[in-house]
Amino acid sequence: MIIAQNVSLIYPDKTQALYDVSLEIKPGELVYITGPSGSGKTSFLKLLMGMEYPTAGSLSVLGQPMEKSNFGRIQILRRKIGPVFQEFKLIEGRTALENVMMGMRFLGIKPKQMREQAHEALEKVGLGHKKYSKVENLSWGESQRVAIARAVARKPSLILADEPTGNLDYDNAINILKLLKSFQKEDTTVIITTHATHLISNEQNATFIHVRNGRITTERRSVAV
Amino acid sequence: MKTFFYNIGYFIKETGRIIGLNLLSNLFSVIGTGLILFLLGLAVTGANIGNNLVDMLNEEAEINAYFSNDISLAGRKEAVENINKIYGVRSARLVDEEEAKTRMENILGEEAKILELFDENPFEAFVEIRINVDEMESILENVKSLDGIEFVRDNKDVLEKIKDITYVFKALGYLMIAAVGITTIIILSHMIRQGIYNNREQINTLRLLGSPGAFIGFPYVLTGILLTLLGGVLATVSVVFLIKTAYESIGNVILFIPMPPRKNLIDNMIILLPSLSFILGLSGSLFGLSSVRKK
User: Fold this and answer.
1) A105–B208 CB contact, under 8 Å
2) Interface predicted TM-score (ipTM)
């Protein structure tokens, strides 16, 4: 599913974000990538999304080598990924429903089915009653839920959520994590980055990868008791 | 392809949104494109009228071939037949001495009595040859080489001028089309780039979600085509109105210029301007998109 071998990432301004990262994530895993701000969590997600390319080492996502020369294929790969961006990247001037449908329009789904999937996703994140609200009129938490609905409505193989608990209070953060976890299935991997380790300390059946200064410091798997 | 059909409604809605986002600027673009196409319409109409005039002059282009003294009547008729067979000759007709004299009398009018001073008809029979100006040189050579033809009056200077006028009109027409085409493409591609810049956040998000470039770009292409088409319609209405008004008010005043039928001019504009605006809209949008994509 995801195989990273000695991956390093150096940005054009010479900032080194990741050093020699090697890991393997299997299909259907729930993975938490933790670490303080600036540790390289988001950079790793950017590599998984094809927003950046490894400057050394090799990385493959869903069987696709993440190399600049493969841009066309990476663009197709992105259709199998459900990203929840830190800043949501919702399209203003559109309703929540339109935003969710926007992520599916180019997947060859029939309009009726697309609408149904979008409705279903919005219901699932608890925003069924706000589907016709413009996204700029939604609260921070609601916007985040729309972003999650957009990510999951297209039934991706890989969900990537970047700091979904960032600006939320404890209860809302727990709810969002629960929601994201609920989409983990046999064929759907969920990767969540967070610096709030206290929120996930009791998690079971998950993989924890701790990153510090661009290096993986610990990797452990917890099993259900 | 099915993605395209599933999203027709979205594309139309998106096009409306892109136009609405910068309504005033787009309105000015429509007016600007309309004005440019209007100028093109005028130039093409002018060229049509000019070409019509040139065609008429061309049809009147004529050379005269004079016989040698020893030729018989049968020989004259044979020479006319042979001239008629030459490529580029529209018609060749024998004008005998009597007709030549009558023509001169008609030209001289009251002064024709001067011809009475001659004991015999001073005019010679000749062949009146209407020709295609473009083939003038080869026709002259062929006619001169025929048996029984002694001299050819070619009116070369006048015919050369007719030829030059034809080329000038054609060159002006092509230049105008090229100028309008380039200007419209520049305006439109700039407009499309502006639209893309205004929507860069949305485009970036769609890219990150895996949207193909064609899906992202299609509403912009539609926008370009729609705006230029509107400009084209505006230009067509204005040019047609102008042609109608011109024919009604000054058509009778400038009788010395043979005008082509009004319907032909109007039909030409109704076909030319909208089709051209469509082509320009499409190429301008694609050019704008490709220049953005390179970045």
Assistant:
1) no
2) 0.90
Q: CA B211 to CA B248: how far, in whole Å?
A: 56
Q: In this predicted structure, what is the pLDDT of residue A223?
A: 62
- Higher-pLDDT residue of A170 and A43 is A43
Give the bridge partners for A219, in sequence order.
Answer: A209
**Which residue is closest to A52 within chain B, CA to CA?**
B208
Least Cα separation, residue B205 to chain A (angstroms): 6
Average pLDDT over residues B50-57: 76
What is the least distance, in Å, from the CA of A198 to any CA of chain B? 31
Q: What is the tens place of the pLDDT at every residue in B119-156?
A: 888 888 899 999 887 888 899 899 989 888 888 887 77
Determine the distance in angstroms separating the CA of B290 from the nearest CA of chain A, rounded to an integer: 16
Cβ–Cβ gap A83/B212 under 8 Å: no
Size of interface A-B (CB pairs under 8 A): 54
In the sheet where A56-61 sits, what is the strand order? A16-25, A2-10, A56-61, A64-65
Structure tokens belonging to residue B94: 């024998």
Q: What share of chain B is helix, strand, coil (3-state, %, to 5)?
A: 75, 10, 15
Q: Please give the sequence-ordered ranges of beta strands (E in DSSP) within A80-139, or none if there are none.
A: 81-84
Flag if A106 and B210 touch (Cβ within 8 Å). yes
Q: Is A153 on the interface with B (CB under 8 A)?
A: no
Say how many C-beta atoms besides its own lie within 10 A of residue B245's C-beta: 11
Contact with chain B for residue A81, Cβ under 8 A: yes
The pLDDT tens digits for A167-189 are 778 888 888 888 888 888 878 99
State yes or no: pLDDT of A48 exceeds 90.
Answer: yes
